[in-house]
Every structure is written in C-alpha cells, then in structure tokens.
Specification:
2 strands, two-stranded parallel ribbon, globular, 5 helices, mainly alpha, 54% helix
C-alpha cells in the first residue's frame, strides 16, 4: 500500500505528527531521513547485505513456526530492495547527512551498542 502516492503522503503526515508529539521518539523506516524527517538532528541508515537480511528474516520465520525457505526469503528481500530503490516516490536511499551503519557482521547487541554510541556522539547524551 505504501507504493500508492496518496497512501504514502498520508503515512508521512502521520509519522511527522508522531515525531513532533510530546517526548522523544526513534522513528524507523526506509525513507525517514530523506522524506519524513529530513531535518532530524540524528540520522542513521542501517543496512546489511541482502543475504544477511534474508538469513535473519528466515531465522525469525522458522522460530515463529513458518517453513525454512531461505532462498524464497532472499528473493523477496532482493525484489523489495529493487522496488523500493527504483520507485518514483520516496526511493530507498541514505540521506546525505546520515551515518551509514552496515550491520552484516554485527550481533544485535553490537548494533545496539554502536547506535547508542553514535547517538551519544551526535547529541551528547542518551537516556
């Protein structure tokens, strides 16, 4: 549905309203730093190889009781990446001022620690 321009425009409005509301929020998505919140003070673009993302998603699927289908998941990840990076509205890309973090060789704990350190460096504090 998010590939429909009117739906995407409404989702952007809602995301901006949430981000501007009371309290601090972390917003995640493929076009947050470029379209939704282009003036955000801290932008981090998380990435990993298609193979790593497919392995992670397939592992989650298996834990959830779904079939082990790494090749199918990998094909889906690659298809979505292609669609998202070539669409006319809000294409997938890192914002020019985003810190790109490749998590391919990182554990979940390492990713969290690295992100917290980036936020500390950029903002001076983490709650």
């Amino acid at each position: 549905m998010s590939s429909v321009p009117t739906v995407r425009a409404r989702l952007v409005e809602l995301q901006r309203a949430m981000a501007e509301g009371p309290g601090s929020v972390v917003v995640e998505g493929r076009d947050i730093g470029t379209v939704v919140l282009p003036d955000a003070p801290i932008k981090i673009f998380l990435t990993a190889s298609a193979e790593t993302r497919a392995r992670r998603r397939n592992d989650q699927n298996v834990v959830s009781g779904l079939a082990d289908d790494y090749e199918g998941v990998l094909a889906d990840v690659r298809r979505r990446d292609h669609l998202d990076s070539t669409r006319a509205v809000s294409p997938l890309r890192a914002a020019p001022d985003a810190v790109v973090v490749d998590t391919s060789d990182m554990s979940e704990a390492q990713v969290i620690a690295h992100l917290l350190e980036l936020v500390r460096q950029k903002s001076g504090a983490v709650r």
